[in-house]
Amino acid sequence: MSYTILKKVQAAPNEYDIWVKAPQIASHAKAGQFVIVMADENSERIPLTIADTDKKEAIRVIYQVVGTSTEKLAQLNVGDALSNCAGPLGQPSEIPEGKQTLVIGGGVGIAAILTIIKTLKEKGNHVTTILGSRDREHLILENEIREIADETLIYTDDGSAGKKGLVTDGMNALFEAGKRFDAAWAVGPTIMMKFCSLVAKEHDLLIWTSLNPIMIDGTGMCGGCRVKVKDTIKYACVDGPEFDGRYVDWDILMNRQKQYSKEETESEHVCKLGGIHPSQSKEGGLQ
Ligand SMILES: Cc1cc2nc3c(=O)[nH]c(=O)nc-3n(C[C@H](O)[C@H](O)[C@H](O)COP(=O)(O)OP(=O)(O)OC[C@H]3O[C@@H](n4cnc5c(N)ncnc54)[C@H](O)[C@@H]3O)c2cc1C
Ligand code: FES
Helices 167-176 & 190-202, crossing angle to 10 degrees? Predict the structure, then answer.
């Protein structure tokens, strides 16, 4: 199978929005699922959320260039092919019917809420969305989401789009205005998901957060993506990636996300995990 890039658009500084030919994945993917891609045969395997599909031929992913593998991906253009693309992986989002829902996206995490919002609307839910980014330039998918969601609030760190503030300010403003929700989602930086979960907890609101621990095989075999939820160990790749944020142990997740930072800094285009089980690496013993 040739995973050819069919379309490529720069969505924001250092962020790319691509459509990739992958019929098997496109015809089976559901909201909340992800793929694991390799830019070339020597690349690391990296997880990316399926932002959208045409349901038969192609999938869409939106990624931020943060290190070696995403940089390699960014060098590929229309007509080039990914070396591998495995999926759809993970459990689909639990989509209710006819409920009041709140969906929050921050930064490149906005990519992951697009299919959730679409599917919620298909099932007759009312969807209020809060989008957050550092500034207008980094705000992705605003128009697409405004067209689908019932209500969209924008928050930026510098106030260059929407209101100046954080997505949690948006949550608090909605609650203060008397809005009530049956279920919420928050996808974005880990720290954002943690604080959204604390606000949701205060209001006794179920909040699905899409966890992003280091993933290697994506099949539940390596243990790299272990997370603690309600005092139970879960594998984000097969049990998640979405978990009720009120019960996630955010401190463990944040510590585990840092466990390869030395190798990531040093990698300079060399595959750093190279199939090594994290328990065999010097610093990566499983917690
Ligand atoms: C389920 C899931 C879905 C994701 N969806 C998206 C998405 O839609 N768009 C997007 O831009 N990013 C997404 N990410 C994050 C993305 O996988 C990382 O940014 C990418 O792996 C970084 O690789 P790198 O070599 O370029 O950077 P590196 O320099 O290797 O790492 C930079 C940071 O990326 C994270 N990271 C590195 N390797 C992995 C790995 N194998 N698994 C998970 N995280 C890693 C770590 O936090 C690390 O500190 C997702 C992660 C997960 C777990
Ligand atoms: S990535 Fe989940 S167990 Fe390996």
Answer: 10
Ligand 1, pocket residues at CB < 6 Å: 34, 44, 46-49, 61-64, 66-70, 108, 111-112, 212, 214-215, 241, 257, 261, 264
CATH number at residue 24: 2.40.30.10
Which residue, 88, 118, 144, sits at the end of a domain? 88
* Predicted model pTM: 0.90
**Domain-ending residue, one of 64, 88, 112:** 88
Q: Closest ligand 1 atom, CA of 65?
A: 26
Beta-sheet pairing, 183-187 with 207-210: parallel
pLDDT digits (tens, 9 = 90+) for 114-160: 999 999 999 999 999 999 999 999 999 999 999 999 999 999 999 99
CA dihedral 19, 30, 92, 122 (to 10 degrees): 120
Nearest CA, atom 3, ligand 2: 220
Residues 110 and 251 both lie in one domain: yes
> Do residue 140 and residue 250 come from a single domain?
yes
